[in-house]
Fold this sequence. Notes:
Layout: E1 24-29, H1 44-52, E2 56-61, H2 74-77, E3 87-91, H3 94-98, H4 114-128, E4 133-138, H5 155-169, E5 172-175, H6 187-190, H7 201-217
Parallel strand pairs: 1-2, 1-3, 3-4, 4-5
Helix pairs in contact: 1-7, 4-5
Amino acid sequence: MEKMTSVNTMKINESEMVDWTTVTWNVLGDSLTDTSNPHSEKKYYDYIQENLHIKKINDYGISGSTIGTNSEPMSERYITMADDADLITVFGGLNDYGRNHPLGDLGDTENDTYYGALDVLLKGLVEKYPDKKIGFISMYARTATPPTNSLGVPDYAYVNAGLEVCEHYGIKHLNLYEIASLNLSSTEGSAYKSDRSHLNDQGQEHLAKIIERFIKSLY
């Protein structure tokens, strides 16, 4: 399978005119978003909220959560999120790869495959939050050469799926997999890891700077 790439221009656009003190942000994700994650005292959204003075953050991070049906699926949990959010981000996919959720194909519309679960989730978000800012954040790399899961599927295939389904729904995508400083097997990336998958406080702060530029680009 050929690896796809994307360009992260991080254009700020009109974000400097945004009154962030009026913004409510729903963060949907797994252990990197879960407040109970013990690998770091602060999470990326804490740093961003402090810097931009965001009014409110609703945290929907659950450790081990998948986008597909395997564990606390985001493709189902999004329904219960607060309706009044102005900004919605999804940060996931690593557990779908790690828990061997079938990849499927572009065009799948049921969450028994990863492509299908992405379709359910992103279509649902567009319908639930019309005219709001929605962004999707893919996993970062944990090894120099992408491994495969027990299904024989490389991790970047799950990143590619996110790119494709986001493009279909016109949702902006932040591809952390392509950011060298977040490759946990690299010299720079190793300073940011708590274990082979999670970030320490320094890593969360570094991630915050990247995601802040991304959410500004949504405006």
